[in-house]
Specification:
CATH class of the largest domain in chain B: Alpha Beta
Oligomer: heterodimer
Distance between the termini of chain A: 62 Å
Helix content of chain A: 10-25%
Number of helices of chain A: 3
CATH topology of the largest domain in chain A: CPE0013-like fold
Structural class of chain A: alpha+beta
CATH architecture of the largest domain in chain A: Roll
Radius of gyration of chain A: 19 Å
Largest sheet of chain A: 5 strands, mixed
Strand order of the largest sheet of chain A: 8-5-6-10-9
Largest interface: A-B, 32 and 39 residues
Number of strands of chain B: 28
Structural class of chain B: alpha/beta
Helix content of chain B: 10-25%
CATH superfamily of the largest domain in chain B: FAD/NAD(P)-binding domain
Bound molecules: flavin-adenine dinucleotide, iron/sulfur cluster
CATH superfamily of the largest domain in chain A: CPE0013-like
CATH architecture of the largest domain in chain B: 3-Layer(bba) Sandwich
CATH topology of the largest domain in chain B: FAD/NAD(P)-binding domain
Chain lengths: 124, 424
Amino acid sequence: MKHLICIECPIGCSLTAVKSGEQWEIKGNRCRKGEQFAINELTDPRRSVCSTVKTTYRKVPRLPVRTNGEVPLNAIFAVMEQINAVTLDHPVHIGEVIIENVCNTGINVIATSDLYYLLEEDGQ
Amino acid sequence: MNEYDVVVLGGGPAGLAAALASFEQGMNTLIIERENRLGGILKQCIHDGFGLIKFKEKLTGPEYAQRYVDKVLACQMPVLLSTFVLTVEKAGTGFVITLVNAAQGVAQIETRALILATGCRERTAKQVFINGTRPAGVFTAGTAQHLVNIEGYLPGKKCVILGSGDIGLIMARRLTLEGAQVLAVYEAKSTPSGLSRNIVQCLNDFHIPLHLSTTITRVFGDNRVEAVEIARVDENMRPIKGTEQVISCDTVILSVGLIPENEIADMLGVEIDAATKGPVVDQNFMTSVEGVFSCGNALHVNDLVDYVSESGEIAGANAAQYVREATPRQLAEIKMSPDFLYVVPQQININSSNRKAVLYFRSREVRENMRVTIKSGDQVLLSKRYVILRPPEMERVRLVIKDGLASNQIEITMEPVKNKEMAL
Ligand SMILES: Cc1cc2nc3c(=O)[nH]c(=O)nc-3n(C[C@H](O)[C@H](O)[C@H](O)COP(=O)(O)OP(=O)(O)OC[C@H]3O[C@@H](n4cnc5c(N)ncnc54)[C@H](O)[C@@H]3O)c2cc1C
Ligand code: SF4
């Protein structure tokens, strides 16, 4: 039997997983997301990566980004390496793709803040 | 002098939601923010997990904030950025605010109602007892978060973290991702303060050890931190002799708690609750000073931004109601049993047309299988079962206030669920 904590929502249910044949039987989840989480966690654990990229703008030296889906847990540092290799030299809107298909995961890295808004003059 | 119906102090998620709610009710509304951008602390909370309740999506802090910023910009309500409030004074049926900014210099504005949405601040090294020198390299988790995420500057290479609050856990992961070595997280209490999911995804994923019932007792170093002394603590949080250990490191991150920011509330003589460290409010989130409202982390430290926005909406809508028609209040106290750490609101205005109160509470200890009951005299207003109650997790309930309450006092209690009931 394996013990896991579901990280899909702040409740954080304590899950137990028992293998019966090829199937995992999951208990302790308060909703269906927990079951899927446990199965993924035991077979192919994945995480989102949130970080920042460098920019050439002195006023906003870093722009926050994230992966638009989950990447394999063991690929996190490779993804970070690619994120840290970027220097953004043009403004982007929230949601725009910064790195396509990062580390061949099929996942993109997208902007999570609006550089146009952050670069505006303090209008009054 | 410019006159407004409602002025909101603070442009974080609480202030933005409050301002939008007030604006939607047709109020002439102004937001005053001391920073040069709206969004509050969310600007630096670049990790995901925000908005699960409100938007059913896993957003990062900046994405969550931008949804509200966009709405505020779209309705073109006035916003004063990089503006500091010097004083707020009661004047007639409203308030006079003296502020200063680069464009206007010192200016005064008038408002009928005021919403305090100034967020919270972090407990600092001065507020936790650590012996030794005061070298560079000691940061609060929030300061470290700002340095890394906004300025792009790594505060150190070999870090230890004191306190297992969520921001500290989030920073343990963040510093690790950026190439720093996080040696351990030390927590004086015997249970972690942060959410379990953050223990998993911020510590366990990166093999960062969490040492419970352990604290930092001394910091070594002349100009920069060179090492810390840690020790196990007993139940009374006193270091146990003989358990000391010296750990070499160059950075100490403190994640030892947040306190509501209430400088302006103090200025106005607003009554503060000793348990929440925020104002005492009724179900409309009006403080003891008529016309002054409070929401978000200025009211009590929330763990989910979704509830911060909700409290802003409640404060904004009710500030508008107050401006339209200020009726005398009749307040019933909500008395809590010692099982609770706090309950917000602390009072119910039985004269208010708002009959649906939202109550937030925290249990003092971890309790399993409990029933929480809210009563007025013999009349049961609410009864709800909880599989588990944990202090780090705030609970929220809706309370319908029926007309003609049986008593002027409302009581909230909890007791273990009976076995017979559990079988059902
Ligand atoms: C360092 C830190 C990190 C956090 N990380 C997380 C997290 O990861 N996840 C999470 O769910 N919650 C986090 N929180 C809690 C977070 O604060 C809330 O979720 C939410 O942002 C609170 O919203 P708010 O509007 O009440 O306060 P804030 O977002 O703090 O906004 C308050 C605003 O008021 C402004 N202000 C203050 N005083 C004045 C004044 N006198 N005049 C004008 N403006 C003023 C401030 O500049 C700020 O913009 C964090 C809190 C802190 C302090
Ligand atoms: S199982 Fe459902 S309720 Fe429990 S932590 Fe996971 S997502 Fe949340």
